[in-house]
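Work Package 3 (structural annotation) set out to generate three-dimensional models for the target panel prioritized at the project kickoff. During this period the team completed the workflow that converts sequence records into discrete structure tokens, so that structures can be stored uniformly alongside our sequence database. As a representative example, we reproduce one entry of 126 residues exactly as it appears in the project archive.
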Amino acid sequence: MDEHGIFSVVLEGNLLSITLLGTFNDIATLSACQQIEAKVESLNGQAFGILLNCIGYEGSTPDAHKISNQYLLWLNKSNYIALATIYSQNIYADIVKNEQAALSELKSRREFTDVQEAKLWLISQL
């Protein structure tokens, strides 16, 4: 099976920027999560924030949601300060929250529909 879903994971200082585009299967989700884990580990315990841009995100398979949920549990044990997620529509946020129970356990998170608003909130948390 091929990877479905396009992503980028960029670490600039203590800000981890993740962009998701399209519909994700388990293969792409695992690959994205492994890249995220590698970037977080490269911080050697430093505190960081996450900007998760899901404006182009169109959904995930049930297996992809399971993988994401496991990594969210791992992320909650890391030294992240805040997570700002941007969706094109609130319905996507509702779907993800319904499929990934670990989101409710994350320390400090907010959903946005505006990139600038998300960035300003995230910067204020760091």
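The mean pLDDT is 91.
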